[in-house]
Amino acid sequence: MYSKKVVIHYPAESSEKPIIYELVKRYDLMLNILKARIFPRREGILVLDLSGNRENFDDGIRYLKSLGLGVEPLSKSVSQNTEKCIHCGACTGVCPTGALSLDRESWRVVFDPELCNGCAVCVSACPVRAMEVDLL
Fold first, then answer.
1. Contact assessment for residue 117 and residue 77, using Cβ atoms and an 8 Å cutoff
2. Cβ–Cβ under 8 Å, residues 29 and 63
3. What pTM value is reported for the model?
4. Residue range 58-86: average pLDDT?
5. How many percent of the chain have pLDDT more than 90?
6. What is the pairing mode between strands 2-10 and 70-73?
7. Which structural domains are found in the chain, ordered by start?
8. Is the CA virtual torsion 98, 5, 48, 73 positive or negative?
9. Using CA atoms, how far apart are residues 31 and 5, in angstroms rounded to an integer?
10. pLDDT digits over 95-122, tens only?
11. DSSP secondary structure string, 50-104?
12. What is the helix (H) or strand (E) element at residue 12, kind and residue range?
């Protein structure tokens, strides 16, 4: 089983297409919608935890790209600015997935993008805005 969190950016003309249906039925993929900004006849985003066998996963991603949708790993949209971070740990207390944690030996905030769901709660919790989420 292959699994990856992806961000799908879609243009207004694709907002009413059955994209999720096709991923499930045609490519036999399982998905969990982590975040969605969907409006009729407007561009939007979907953040999905997408899984299935590797061949179907790759075929599903190619299908999305063939429709003109932007597809990228979630890890490219969420980042920790280590130069800004003061390692106070405020973000670790609000992170619902454990993607942000405090290393007890170094007392530094550690970010694991594979655990992140893109919720952006950490952005408002961080006093210096060291966490950056670019899903727009």
1. no
2. no
3. 0.76
4. 92
5. 69
6. antiparallel
7. 2-76 (3.30.70.260), 78-133 (3.30.70.20)
8. positive
9. 9
10. 999 999 999 999 999 999 889 988 889 9
11. EEE-HHHHHHHHHHHHHTT-EEEEGGGTEEE-TTT-----GGGGT-SSS-EEEET
12. none
And the tokens for 83? 């130069």
Longest distance between any two alpha carbons in the chain, whole Å = 51
Q: How many CB atoms lie within 10 A of CB 76?
A: 11
Per 3-state DSSP, the chain is made up of helix, strand and coil in percentages (nearest 5) of 25, 30, 40
d(CA 101, CA 122): 11
* DSSP annotation of 14: G
Mean pLDDT of the chain: 91
- Please report, rounded to a whole number, the percentage of residues in the chain having pLDDT higher than 70: 99
The pair of structure tokens assigned to 96 is 């619902």
Rounded Cα distance between 2 and 50, Å, is 8
Helical ranges in 15-53 per DSSP H: 19-25
Residue type, position 64, single letter: L
Beta bridge partners of 91: none
Whether residue 100 contacts residue 110, with contact meaning beta carbons closer than 8 Å, is answered with: yes
